[in-house]
Design brief:
By secondary structure, the chain is α+β, with helices and mostly antiparallel strands. It has two domains: 3-79, no CATH class; 92-148, OB fold (Dihydrolipoamide Acetyltransferase, E2P) (Beta Barrel), CATH 2.40.50. It is 44% helix and 23% strand. The protein contains four helices and five strands, in the order ααααβββββ. The chain has helices at 10-27, 33-49, 55-79, 92-96; strands at residues 100-108, 111-116, 119-124, 133-140, 143-148. A five-stranded mixed barrel has the order 1-2-3-5-4. β4 and β5 form a beta hairpin. α1 (10-27) packs antiparallel against α2. It is rod-shaped. InterPro entries: Membrane_assoc_protease (IPR052165). This is NfeD family protein.
């Protein structure tokens, strides 16, 4: 007796495919495989209800349901966008704005260097001596624009 005969033959294969796709979505989240998992599950239920459904019709049903679920998902994410926890997560320079930093090399003639965390950044702004505390106003082309406190 084949292992799939106990759970409906081809229907069982579609349901197992749905389960595998669902697990793959959890392992590598990308919000795409879940739609294929849903399509495989719907196809599995259809094959379970219509056991004589030819393989070509099963594949066509899977293709149609895949397109339908992807379009529904696309619409859902357009209408209900997922808010990120930190919009500046991967924008290091934007995260610096507003921070108070220390002048490392005196800012003379509008140019100098400041200590940002454990690094040194080129800076421009009003003249300030070594050790002065200044606030980051912006970051432009890798250069920190500072203002006096």
């Amino acid at each position: 007796m084949d292992a799939l005969d106990g759970i409906g033959g081809a229907a069982g294969a579609w349901l197992i495919a749905a389960l595998v796709l669902g697990i793959a979505e959890l392992a590598v989240p990308g919000v795409f495989l879940v739609f294929l998992a849903i399509a495989a599950a719907v196809t599995g239920v259809a094959v379970f209800a219509l056991p004589d459904l030819p393989v070509a019709a099963q594949l066509a049903a899977f293709a149609v349901w895949s397109a339908v679920t992807v379009l529904i998902g696309k619409r859902w994410y357009r209408d209900y966008p997922v808010e990120g926890g930190d919009p500046m997560l991967n924008d290091r320079s934007a995260r610096l704005v507003g921070h108070v930093v220390v002048v490392e090399t005196a800012i003379v003639g509008g140019r100098g260097r400041v200590l940002v965390g454990d690094g040194s950044w080129p800076a421009r702004g009003k003249d300030a001596g070594v050790g002065a505390r200044v606030r980051v106003a912006a970051v432009v082309d890798g250069e920190v624009v500072v203002e006096l406190l």
